[in-house]
Structures are given as structure tokens and as C-alpha cells.
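Annual report, structural modelling task.

Input specification for the (2R)-2,3-dihydroxypropanoic acid complex:
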Amino acid sequence: MSDKPVLWLPRRVSDATIERARRDYDLVLNEADTPGTSNEIIAMSAQVDAMMPCHSEQFSAEVVSQLYPRLKIVANHSVGVDHCDLAALAAKGIAVTNTPDVLSDATAELAMLLLLGAARHTVQGDRLMRTGTWDSWSPSFMVGKQVTGARLGIVGMGRVGRAFAAKARGFDMEIHYFNRNRLPPDQEHGAIYHESIDTLLPVADFLSLHCPATPETLDLMNAERLAALPNGAILVNSARGALVDEDALVHAIENGKLSAAGLDCFKTEPGGNPKFAAYENIFMLPHIGSATTKTRDAMGFRALDNLDAFFAGKTPRDLL
Ligand code: DGY
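The model returned the following structure:
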């Protein structure tokens, strides 16, 4: 029997990650690639030293309370850790890591796609072309909202928020942001800081969310905050579905407060919100912010780096 630590991969991560994991660990891979259920997570914790879950595996307090002592580390293959009850895991003495930095550009790229797609009637245009129903053109046909030079509000200026701001500067957007702490001047690049989200919202013709899902940010964009945006604003969410009150969003789309929205994250995943499908000015993608080959390899390798450090008796770089 090998003396390598036993690692469970509940999902089929990138081939390069699996190859490296197979080399350095006794790998237990869920070839079926189905989300790990609570029962599977609990049962596996009796058989493995480490797990590399994605945000699809839920480590609730109830699940964590039933984990077996063999499990030493949960090395997440995600930057977001809202699927983990960190306090419960810490109380059990289980180390937890995530994968920051490596997915910031891919996620920021996708946020820009959402912003552009929402601004320029992409869903409607795509439908006309695919159904062969593009039968007229006029100067008032599919007129959207110009991005270049527009005012952009960013909520959360962490790594992804800053990467998104860098992309938005390429469109000469006037960038305003709200963050718990003001960035050092060399990281602001002229972005205007708001101490409160309340002063940010009225100037945000486009608003992009880049903060984590926590109990404090649940339904951050509720009816009141959506109403505080300029008329015809566009909301972009590539962070987490929990940040948006989805009924309030539908209402804001219906009454024209929002001219459009671009969403990659939903309260219910997979599946999304069936109410949204009726509105072509909601441009939607299925949680694929970090889904590029380069980034998925980098996420897997970063999670493995964390595991390697842990089992070498060192502090993993991304220990939470
Ligand atoms: C993350 O890393 O948090 C992304 O949402 C993908 O899981």
C-alpha cells in the first residue's frame, strides 16, 4: 500500500490537474462527475485524508459535524467558499484553502462579456439571426446603451473587481467603486472611491458586483438599492446569485428601472431562475466565469500546491 495521502476529487477537474493528482496522491476520482452529496462527503471523509471540492459540494455545519477525523484538509477548487461553513470546519480542526488570483482575469473577462451583451441587445439579436426573422432595419432598430465613456460602479474591489476595472479602463469607463477599505492610490488608477454603497448607486449607469456571498451581502441588490440606480441602468453579476434579490430584479426589468442585466450567477444553480427567460434584456450564462482551459488548469494546480504544502508540513499559501 502506498504511503501517499489519499485525495478525493468529487468532480472531473482539468486533465492536467488529474494527471498531477494521480502522480502525487492516491486518487479517488468521481468519474461520473456528479456533485458530491452530503452522504458522499461524509462517507468519503472516513476514507480520505484530503478533498478537493468545487462550489457544487456543500460543507454545511450539519455535514461538517458528521465528518470523520481522518479528513485533514478541504482544498477548494474555487475562490468562493460560501459552500463551506468555515467556522464549523475550523472547530473540527480541518484546514481549508481556496484558489484566489488565478481566476481573476477569466472572471473579469466574462463580466465584461455580460456587460457588453446586456448593453447591446445580444439575446434579441442572436434570436433574430438564428430564427431567420431579421426582416427589417431602421436607425432606431436595437439601439443599445454605449459602454465607452459610461459611468461604471464596482461593488467589491478585490482581485476580480480590480481585474474588471482594468478591462473597463480599456473602454474609457469612468470608474466608481465601493469597498470595505479604500485601495492604495497606486491601485486605484483614478477610480473614485465611495465610502458607502448609497452614494455609489446613483452614479452607476452600469453596476458590476464583485463581492463574496456572506450573510451580510445576501440580497445586497434588493428593491431599494435597485431603485437607487439611475433610470435605465444595467446590472452585472458574475459573483454569486445570493447577492441579488431575484424578484426585485424582475420587477426592476419590468418597470424599466433596469434597461438590462447580465448574469452568470443565480440563487438556484444549476438551473437558474425560470422567470428570467421571459426577458430578452436579461443576458444569461450558466456560471462559467472561470471556465477557460488556462484558468481551470491554474485553479487545479493552485489547489494541489496548497495540498502539497499542507502534507509537507508547511502552511499552504491560501490557508483561510
Ligand atoms: C469560484 O471559484 O468561486 C467560481 O465561482 C467557480 O467555482
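The chain has twelve helices and twelve strands.
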